[in-house]
UniProtKB/TrEMBL annotation:
<dbReference type="GO" id="GO:0140647">
    <property type="term" value="P:P450-containing electron transport chain"/>
</dbReference>
<dbReference type="InterPro" id="IPR036010">
    <property type="entry name" value="2Fe-2S_ferredoxin-like_sf"/>
</dbReference>
<keyword id="KW-0411">Iron-sulfur</keyword>
<dbReference type="InterPro" id="IPR001041">
    <property type="entry name" value="2Fe-2S_ferredoxin-type"/>
</dbReference>
<dbReference type="GO" id="GO:0046872">
    <property type="term" value="F:metal ion binding"/>
</dbReference>
<dbReference type="GO" id="GO:0009055">
    <property type="term" value="F:electron transfer activity"/>
</dbReference>
<feature type="domain" description="2Fe-2S ferredoxin-type">
    <location>
        <begin position="1"/>
        <end position="98"/>
    </location>
</feature>
<protein>
    <submittedName>
        <fullName>(2Fe-2S)-binding protein</fullName>
    </submittedName>
</protein>
<dbReference type="InterPro" id="IPR001055">
    <property type="entry name" value="Adrenodoxin-like"/>
</dbReference>
<keyword id="KW-0001">2Fe-2S</keyword>
<keyword id="KW-0408">Iron</keyword>
<keyword id="KW-0479">Metal-binding</keyword>
<dbReference type="InterPro" id="IPR012675">
    <property type="entry name" value="Beta-grasp_dom_sf"/>
</dbReference>
<dbReference type="Pfam" id="PF00111">
    <property type="entry name" value="Fer2"/>
</dbReference>
<comment type="similarity">
    <text>Belongs to the adrenodoxin/putidaredoxin family.</text>
</comment>
<dbReference type="GO" id="GO:0051537">
    <property type="term" value="F:2 iron, 2 sulfur cluster binding"/>
</dbReference>
């Protein structure tokens, strides 16, 4: 089972089941993660900055392609409500703009 490590969230280790979005896997651990639209791919508040393992993610969704084409999603960012981990581990960070005030972030 692939593992996502959120480096600036105390190296939180998230096991991602096949076909499960990263957001669902994070929520299953009980961790809070910004997602203003409710995980429907209608905003970019749930994005993650991928620092390693981008090649292990599933293909970009229509929502991600739309945000990428209009400059709201960088090449090293994915929407946690849309993306899956297909075949390997990955590392990432919560962007500064979407950090929640009650969470303890490092770095």
């Amino acid at each position: 089972m692939p593992i996502l490590t959120v480096q600036n969230l105390s190296d939180l280790k998230v096991k991602v089941e096949e076909g499960q979005t990263l957001l669902k896997a994070i929520q299953a651990l009980g961790a809070d993660w910004m997602h203003a639209c409710g995980g429907k791919g209608r905003c970019t508040t749930c994005r993650i900055i991928v620092t390693q393992g981008l090649e292990h993610f599933g293909p970009l969704t229509d929502s991600e392609l739309r945000y990428r084409s209009n400059g709201r999603l960088k090449d090293n960012e994915r929407l946690t409500c849309q993306c899956t981990l297909a075949d390997g581990d990955a590392f990432g960070n919560v962007p500064e703009q979407t950090k929640l005030p009650h969470m303890n972030y490092s770095g």
